[in-house]
Amino acid sequence: MIYFDNNSTTPMAPEVAAAVFEASARFGNASSVHGYGREARRLINESRETIARCLKVNEATITFTSGGTESLNAAMLGVFLPLQGPRHLIVSRVEHSAVLKTAEFLESLGVEVSYLGVDAEGRLEADAVEAALKPHTKMIAVMFANNETGNLYPVKRIGESARGRGIPYLCDAVQAVGRFEIDLSLLPIDLLAASAHKFHGPKGVGFLYGRKEVELTPLIHGGRQERGHRAGTENLPGIVGMAKALELAQGRLFEDLRKVSRLRDRLQAGLLEKIPGIEWNGDVEHRVAGTLNFRVTGVSGETLLMNLDMAGIAVSVGAACDSGSLEPSHVLLAMGLDEERALEGVRVSLSRYNTEAEVEEFLRVFPGLVSKIRAAA
User: Fold this and answer.
1) Which residues are paired to 177 by β-bridges?
2) Residue 252 burial by CB count (10 A; 0-12/13-18/19+): exposed, middle or buried?
3) Rounded Cα gap, residues 72 and 222, in angstroms
4) pTM of the entire structure?
5) Which one of 231, 253, 257, 321 is the catalytic residue?
6) Residue 105: is it exposed, middle or buried by C-beta count within 10 angstroms (0-12/13-18/19+)?
7) 321 classed as catalytic
8) pLDDT tens, 289-331?
């Protein structure tokens, strides 16, 4: 199989798998006071310090969670649920479902939500965020990078606008952590969500960065784990693996960026040369290095996905959490595509483990599949 679906999840790095396996042997409960428990607590503390060091923040600002979805829910609900009176939330229409569905839930509780549109290339202007602000705005939630198109958003300007007004800025950085140099001592981000399996770590673990000035009501109640922010026995192997994965990613950030950008550019040039009627989705000048989202005119993305899968190549037609849905991508619809064209969208996403040979094999196989599908139609 050729795996080109790394925005959905990445293969675990061998060094991470080894760290997870070793940590699995440390079976003590980190809340226990005996030697087994103290060893587990030491590993958790060291992992938190590693992650904090990579982001250039104090370790007390890092809370371990089960992944990006929980982190985003914990941030949004943690801010809004205790509030009374008029409450206003700003989100973009191209956010991940974890943000949009939580925004809809908050609406059902009486929170006013402004959904900001994007242009035909999926770009969001920072001025649009400022224009949407109200006296009772309590949070701005705009992602760092889009999971479908790879588009990058003006997080610094949005954060500066929010910080100047004392409004918490939540940034979904699930597609950015481990792929970019993120210095939270400089970026005006108050809350940031990340998930380990997006940067070659294990599934089922993530973290929420929370600036100490932002008060959050816990989403999960019970014991005093995570300094009272998130109850439940910690996922020790996952946490250790996540810290190892982020440390590895930070150490080879620019090397991976150059490699993945080169592979993506070769893939894009080859598709443009070989496929008549191909169109790009998103801002090709400002995006995550390994993401390429495109449409082949008149050909269903689902049909392309199934034919590629039978040829041993894995791609995606949208967010992994929406797989199995016959609905068009909400991101492509927000960019102004009609339903028919939105259903043509295909996403290829690359990682450090992909190769030039895989890209050339894709370019060899794909034109024939397109021709066969068009002929059958």
Assistant:
1) 180
2) exposed
3) 20
4) 0.95
5) 321
6) middle
7) yes
8) 999 999 999 999 999 999 999 999 999 996 555 555 568 999 9
